[in-house]
Structure formats: structure tokens, C-alpha cells
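User: Hey, quick favor. My workstation is busy. Could you predict this chain's structure for me?
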Amino acid sequence: MSESAVPSSTDPVRQEAGAGWPARWAGALLCLVVAGIHVVDQGGFTVTRDPYYIGIAYHVLEIAGVVAAVLLLAGRVRAGWLLAAGVAAGPLLGYVLSRGPGLPHYRDDVGNWTEPLGLVSLAVEGALFLLAVPLLVRGPRRRPR
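Assistant: No problem, here it is.
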């Protein structure tokens, strides 16, 4: 019997921040939904929002959401949950800042707290954050000796 080049599910590298498949699939799906919402909000993959730094932030978020999903499904769970927490926290902070005091050269959304896609985004990002952070904080599961 030969050993596989692919690490097993008992490999400590793949079980760094232990979470079962249901949590990892849910996290991956939520990451992809966050990315998708932002693609829709900016008007498509090839569009960059104004101001330019907001557009770049959207693209970075979309890529990060896909990468986090891949990491979670590939078993690189600690890195996946860490990136997923960022995918959730970044747009949550951006939502509050863009609707509250506004951002430099971007005041279009000041006071626009009830925009429907923004509310959906908040719900998805909140769910992802509430899933990712506890799994990240608790770290690896240790078996009793």
C-alpha cells in the first residue's frame, strides 16, 4: 500500500483550526456570496467603481472571497477562516464608514442605511463573521490523551 501525496484529514496542517465539513462548506458559500454581492454592486467583473480606491477594494474583496472559499474547501482551514473573517469584517467596516461619516471622495452613500443590497450584504457578512471568528479563536481541537 503506497502513501498518498495528498495530506489526510488527520494531517495537522489540514486540521489547524478544526471545523467540520458543514461549517467549512457554509463558510465557503458565504465567502462566495459576499464576493458575488460586490460584483453585482459594482456593475460586473470588468467595472471599477469610483473613486478608484473603492473600485480596487471591491476587486481585492472579490478575489479574497474566492481564495478564502478555496482554502476552506481544500482543508487549509486556519488560513481560510482568517481570510474569511477579513472578507466579512472589511465590508462591514466599509458599510459603516461609507454610510456614516463618508469616505474621501465618496459621499454617495452617506445616510443610505436601508439600501436593499447593502442590507443583504450586511446579513451575509455578519453570518460569515459569526461563523469564522469562533472557529478561528478556538484553534485546533486536541484529543484527550
